[in-house]
Hints:
The chain is mostly helical. The protein contains two helices and no strands. The longest helix is centred in the C-terminal third of the chain and has 41 residues, at 35-75.
Amino acid sequence: xxxxxxxxxxxxxxxxxxxxxxxxxxxxxxxxxxxxxxxxxxxxxxxxxxxxxxxxxxxxxxxxxxxxxxxxxxxxx
Length: 77
């Protein structure tokens, strides 16, 4: 796999995680699940939030690295 493909897959995974979080929130807001199911959904949601936060931090780091690289490339010309 090339670097672009990995980045796209990470982004899609992030989008899928956000969609799943939306589904979980909607289900919990409807309050139609029993307590055990609600707790399971809540736990899944917390895990997804943690995963998304980690992915966002990785994206921010990558953008920062690219900005520094781009800045250095233009300064040397």
